[in-house]
Write a structure and sequence with these properties.
InterPro entries: GerAC_N, Spore_GerAC-like, Spore_GerAC-like_C, Spore_GerAC_C_sf. This protein is α/β, with parallel strands linked by helices. The protein is built from twelve helices and 13 strands. The C terminus is likely disordered.
Length: 421
């Protein structure tokens, strides 16, 4: 056999091997593609009913709950948004799964749980306790996410979710918007399901949830109602302290604001000194930056906790200024403003501490701070912490700095020479 025949035979063998290799590779790729689930079980968006809010209330029958489900319905004409008309449905059942099954039979589309934004816990359920059994469904079902918000309703959750708002928004989405804009107020906590479950796991810290309520014209706000029976608006104010999953008591606005300072959760707070009786000049301001740290101290074997709060504030208003001030006088007035703002902050913090001592539940997480700063000491007192929390020494070190006083060194009532023709 000559050289050319050998080369030709070798080339044929290489070509045959390459073809077999490519054929085998194609078979493997085809097998992998067929093994991937892909979108075989997909559901078109237009065939789904996105769930936006769930409300839990006690049912009429013992052992049952009224589960209110709010779904979004796309507005006709292709406009963005959602409307509540005929899309808020409720069912009385002994479990959340049973309630979903009942509602699903009446829903015009397949319910989609992955879009849930807020869970509203009715006041009666919160006081009775045991709503963790319903939240258990929310954390186990694959479509739910732990990023959903938890709130307590004053009254019934069903009533809150069935409100017809003047903005025509879904109440569930409206509540979500208020909560997510809460950094601009820093007046109530923002609690997601995942955070709530984490706090439950600490055992020493009592969970806390923001409170929502329906308000009508004249109940703190004023607006022009088109109809006399119009339900009103939704407000998020205050918080509820829980023992496990049972509501112990509500915090008022001042106590909740104190909680926010001590929790280092203040960003853009509005603050004023109007209620300080000993000061003739009143100030209003906005928090620019705030930082709260804590220090566990020991003094001759006696332990205590000191909160160190450092806050920068811009003055928005000066009320009651009756004379034109010199530059030196204005500097002194700014120092007075800093002391007045610090007094307001301390008053709010003391209100929160006082409430915690009255309740005997550590919603401020002081036990958690002790454990982090002094694990050895915490190990000795954790078993009796419920008894210790009511009188554990707490002090404050608050310092306010005014970094912006506006463009005027006088009030509008005595601004001689500061205007322009």
């Amino acid at each position: 056999m000559d050289v050319f025949s050998l080369e030709e035979e070798s080339g044929c063998l290489m070509k045959s091997s390459r073809e077999k290799y490519m054929a085998g590779l194609m078979i493997i790729c085809l097998f992998i593609i067929l093994s991937i689930s892909g979108c075989w079980g997909k559901r078109e968006v237009e065939d789904l009913a996105p769930l936006m809010g769930i409300g839990f209330d006690l049912g009429k029958k013992p052992g049952t709950y009224l589960v209110t489900q709010q779904y979004a319905k796309t507005k006709k004409g292709g406009n963005s948004g959602a409307e509540t008309e005929e899309r808020t449905l409720g069912a009385e059942a002994s479990s959340v799964r049973e309630a979903f099954d009942i509602v699903s039979k009446a829903a015009y589309r397949t319910p989609f749980m992955g879009s849930l934004k807020v869970i509203v816990i009715g006041e009666d359920v919160a006081k009775a306790g045991g709503f963790n059994n319903m939240l258990d469904f929310a954390q186990r079902f694959a479509e739910f996410r732990r990023s959903m918000y938890l709130v307590i309703a004053r009254g019934k959750a069903e009533d809150v979710l069935n409100l017809k708002l003047r903005s025509e928004q879904l109440p569930a989405l409206y509540i979500r918007s208020i909560i997510e804009g809460g950094h601009d107020l820093s007046a109530f906590p923002m609690v997601r399901l995942g955070h709530y479950l984490t706090v439950l796991g600490t055992k020493s810290t009592a969970p806390i949830l923001p409170v929502v309520e329906a308000v009508k014209d004249g109940e703190g706000i004023h607006y022009k109602a088109e109809k006399s029976d119009e339900a009103g608006e939704i407000r998020v104010e205050g918080a509820g302290v829980l023992n496990g999953d049972q509501l112990v008591d509500f915090l008022n606005d001042e106590e909740t604001k104190g909680y926010m300072w001590l929790e280092d959760d203040v960003f853009n707070r509005l603050i004023n000194t109007v209620d300080l009786k000993e000061s003739t000049v009143k100030f209003s301001g906005q928090v620019l930056k705030s930082n709260t740290r804590y220090k566990v101290k020991t003094d001759g074997g006696n332990f205590g906790l000191t909160y160190q709060i450092r806050t920068s504030i811009a003055i928005d208003e000066v009320l009651g200024l009756e004379r034109q001030l010199s530059g030196t006088d204005w500097v002194e007035l700014v120092k007075e403003a800093e002391a007045s703002f610090a007094e307001v902050i301390q008053k709010e913090c003391e209100s929160a501490i006082k409430k915690q001592r009255e309740l005997g539940f550590d919603f401020l997480g002081i036990g958690r701070h002790i454990e982090q700063r002094n694990p050895k000491y915490w190990k000795n007192i954790k078993e009796r912490w419920k008894q210790e929390v009511s009188d554990f020494p707490v002090s404050f070190d608050i310092k306010v700095t005014v970094h912006n006083t506006g463009m005027s060194s006088s009030s509008a009532t005595n601004s001689e020479g500061e205007g322009q023709d």
